[in-house]
Design brief:
globular; mainly alpha; about 220 residues; binds fe (ii) ion; 10 helices
Length: about 220
């Protein structure tokens, strides 16, 4: 099967960028975010001793559909990579926003139109989550266009921007459970792998704000 190496995936991500300066344009924020997702996925994969080349490649291309259409980027990315013959890589465009490949465990309320909902749901139901799905799902939630942050900080940003929905608390719980499971594999805190995260110092405050936003009792969980 045709597959993208880490290098090829990065090249595909940067395909339309002629000058590094273009990466700072607002419309290219998603590219910087994707670079960090690839880097984060690579670090985690190395630490838990799975294929880090694959993890990095999947991270780089997970949002590639944004080049075509932001609102429908999961399906656009999936079709784009499938058409190029990158069948394995295409799945991460669809699975990255749904924790454990569960359509209800997502931020922003999920796919808006019935056609997209049915297409994604059908795919998710026929493709159980694997470790790479889980790693990209988690990395998507602590990578900004400016670098790595805490999941708490990123969720605060997402829920504040996209709104709190009926499923937001379940999404939050699923994210924290996924973090715990990855940390079980690591045997240490996720944040140990990302010492550059400054927001770690605000984690209690961010958790409090999250609690206020979700109006639920949230316990802070950091593995030492
Ligand atoms: Fe993303």
């Amino acid at each position: 099967m045709k597959r993208l190496t880490e290098e090829e995936a990065l090249k595909l991500l940067l395909q339309n960028i002629k000058d590094k300066k273009e990466l700072n344009l607002p419309e290219n924020k998603w590219i910087l975010h994707s670079i960090y997702v690839g880097e984060a996925a690579k670090r985690i994969a190395k630490a838990i001793k799975i294929n880090s080349d694959k993890a990095a490649a999947f991270g780089y291309i997970h949002d590639i559909g944004r080049r075509i259409n932001h609102s429908n980027h999961p399906i656009e990315g999936y079709n784009y990579l499938n058409n190029l013959g990158y069948i394995e890589e295409a799945r991460y465009c669809l699975t990255h926003s749904f924790i454990d490949n569960d359509i209800n465990k997502t931020a922003g309320g999920g796919p808006k139109d019935t056609e997209s909902y049915d297409f994604i749901n059908n795919f998710l139901q026929n493709n159980n989550h694997n470790i790479y799905d889980n790693i990209i799902q988690l990395c998507d939630l602590f990578c900004l266009e400016t670098g790595f942050t805490t999941i708490e900080n990123r969720l605060l940003d997402i829920y504040s921007r996209k709104g709190v929905f009926d499923n937001s608390y379940d999404h939050y719980l699923a994210v924290m459970d996924l973090k715990k499971r990855i940390e079980k594999g690591l045997q240490y805190s996720l944040y140990t792998l990302f010492p550059e995260i400054k927001e770690i110092n605000n984690i209690e405050d961010d958790s409090r704000k999250l609690k206020e936003l979700l109006q639920k009792d949230i316990k802070i969980y950091i593995l030492k």
